[in-house]
C-alpha cells in the first residue's frame, strides 16, 4: 500500500488560518505559501508518501474574481506543485507529488462538487480543466489527482483535459450510497477508466468511510486497475454554515484493501501516522 496525505485544508485551519472564502486553501498560495510547505512536510513526516497539491480549488476564474491577473494565477498554480516538491525534497525518501485537479463545482464554493450536474457540457468542462492541467503539468508533478469527481460526464472531461500532457493520473469519485454524487451507478463511473493507460488507479475520495469498501470492489472489478481510497472523516459538511459537524469515524480499517490510501477532509497527520503504523503492523514490520 502507498500512503497518501490527509486533509491539507484541515491542517492549515489547525495551524490558525481562516479558509472560509471562495479560494479555500488556494488563497494561501498567494498569502502564506510557507504554511502550505509546512503542512506538506507535516504529512510527510507522519508517514505519507504522496502529497496532493493545494490546487484543488485554484482556477483562473476563481483567482480573477479575487483580483488576480491570468499570469499571476498561472504562477500560483505552478507554485502549488513547487511547494509540494520542496517539502518532498526537505523530508527525503521515496515520495511523490500529485497535482490536484478538483471538480468544476469546487470553484463555486457552494458544495456543488457533492451534487455534480452543473448544466455544462462535457466540452465546456474539458476546456475549464484543460487550462489548469496544462499549467500544472508544466510544473513537473509526478501525476495528476483527478479528485472528488461527482459524475461521469466530468470524469470524461477530465480525461480529455489531460490528454497529451504526458502525466499519469488517478481518478477518484466522491460517492454516496453506492452511486456517484450525481446518482450514476459506480459500474458506469469506473468503466470510463478501463483500458486507459494514463490512469494508474481508480477509486474514491471525500466520501463517508463506510462507502469505501463496496466502491473499491466495483472499481477493481470494472476498471481492472489498482484502487485508491482517501475518505473524509465521516463528519458532515454543512455548506451553508461552511463547517463540519459530528465526530470522526476515520479508521485504518476503512481503507483496507486499497493499493493507495490516505484521508481527505478532517483527516489529520496523526490519523495518517496511525494508518502508517497499521500498514507496517500488517506487513509484519
From TrEMBL:
Gene Ontology biological process terms from the UniProt entry: methionine biosynthetic process; methylation; S-methylmethionine cycle
Keywords assigned: Metal-binding, Methyltransferase, Transferase, Zinc
Which Pfam families does the record associate with it?
A: S-methyl_trans (PF02574)
Gene Ontology molecular function terms on file? metal ion binding; S-adenosylmethionine-homocysteine S-methyltransferase activity
Give every Hcy-binding domain span.
Answer: 1-279
Q: What class of enzyme is it?
A: transferase
EC numbers? 2.1.1.10
Q: Which residues bind Zn(2+)?
A: 206, 264-265
Cofactor names from the entry are: Zn(2+)
InterPro entries per record: HCY_dom, HCY_dom_sf, Hcy_S-methyltransferase
Kindly provide the name given to this protein in its UniProt entry: Homocysteine S-methyltransferase
Q: Which organism is it from?
A: Amycolatopsis acidicola
